[in-house]
Amino acid sequence: MVLVYTTCQTIDEAKELGRRVLKARVASGVDIWPITTIAIEGEELKELEEAVLFIRTNENKLAELEEFLEKRHTHSVPFVAGIDVRRLNRTYREWMSTFIVR
Asked: Are 37 and 48 in contact (CB under 8 A)?
């Protein structure tokens, strides 16, 4: 399993993107949390209220999910990071495989 991390400008935007990811069947679930992001833009520090998405997918769907996010994300250059999950309970792994492999 891979957790894909990305951020959106708002919770509503994150929910919409999460729904679209699931309807496309490139993931089995999405967790959304409000976060504060601090980033450098030029010479200034910016502090933003955003939403993070943790998207659960399989390794074989990772490239398709990345492409999906790049095409539909509102950020011109979205941050999309895959985090390899080494341990996962068998029953969830089996359920997940039947959900997103179709």
From this structure: yes
Q: How many helices (H) and strands (E) does the chain have?
A: 3, 4
Considering the segment(s) 2-100 as one domain, its CATH architecture is 2-Layer Sandwich (3.30)
CB-CB contact of 60 with 26 (8 Å): no
Measure the CA–CA gap between 99 and 96, rounded to whole angstroms. 5
Q: Give residue limits of the domains in the chain.
A: 2-100
Q: What is the pTM of this model?
A: 0.84
Q: pLDDT band for position 23 (50/70/90)?
A: very high
Rounded distance between C-alpha atoms, residue 10 and residue 52, angstroms: 9
- For 59-86, write each residue's pLDDT tens digit: 889 999 999 999 988 888 888 999 999 8
